[in-house]
Amino acid sequence: MPELIAAEEQSPQLALKIGLRDEATFENFCPRPSLAAVLDSMTRPAAEPLQFLHGAAGEGKSHLLQALCHATAGALYLPLAELRGAHPGALLENLETAALLALDNLEHIAGDGEWEEALFHLMNRARAAQCPLWVAARSPAMDLGIELPDLRSRLGGGVTWAMTPANDEEMRRILQFRAERRGLAMPDAVASYLCARETRALGDLMDTLNRLDNASLQRQRPLTVPLVREVMGW
């Protein structure tokens, strides 16, 4: 279970036994028109300190929050799905001293009275300390099942961003972008074939890309539709 550890010279992120994924950077995120405003808001100071980002699983919320933390010295990323088993009062104490807070997977603490109250107080302390706060969840704040009225009100008072699912063209572009970042050439025919056969979740597509990249390297073969069929058993 992730927990706070004594570390006077460590960054806030290192003081938690939670690491940021090395590849979760803005440079590794394929931009698309529907997310231009979100990306812009992440790269410049915002007038409203509370920003709420929602979208389906696999759309890139965690990637963006971690990218923001990579780009902000002294920022702290909190994946609530992993932290829910910890005592929230002790875990969240003094976190408003971070340069920025990114709270991921908010849906995992919805309905937990102790966590909801602790998060509400953290948000108040963060606002008083002028600490920017980004929160991500799979649904809009009002649809999460948050029971504490004050927390619902606080979440609804920030700026809300919706991550809409990528369309077919965007999915192909994302696949080719991520393949290129690996040094792997992906023809249009392969990208179209993968999008037609694989699930719509970007996380699943990235797992498939990893398998194909390894297979292409091991077999010393370029990425083609026949190779995809062979590796994936389609």
Task: Explain this structure.
- By secondary structure, this protein is α/β, with parallel strands linked by helices.
- It folds into two domains: 26-162, Rossmann fold; 168-232, Helicase, Ruva Protein, domain 3.
- The chain is 43% helix and 11% strand.
- The protein contains ten helices and five strands.
- Strand 3, helix 5 and strand 4 (133-137) form a beta-alpha-beta unit.
Summed up, what is this model?
The protein has 234 residues and is of the alpha/beta class.
Indicate the overall shape: elongated
Instruction: Give the strand content.
Output: 5-15%
Report the average pLDDT across residues: 90
> Helix-strand pattern, N to C?
HEHEHHEHEHEHHHH
Return the domain count: 2
The main sheet orders its strands as 2-3-4-1-5
Poorly predicted regions: 1-10
Give a quick account of the main beta sheet: strands, pairing sense, barrel closure: 5 strands, parallel
CATH class designation of the largest domain: Alpha Beta
Specify the CATH architecture of the largest domain.
3-Layer(aba) Sandwich
What fraction, in percent, of the residue positions are helical?
40-55%
Supply the CATH superfamily name of the largest domain.
P-loop containing nucleotide triphosphate hydrolases
Distance between the termini: 39 Å
Radius of gyration: 20 Å
CATH topology heading of the largest domain: Rossmann fold
Number of helices: 10
Defining traits:
Helicase, Ruva Protein, domain 3, 43% helix, 234 residues, alpha/beta, elongated, 11% strand, five-stranded parallel β-sheet
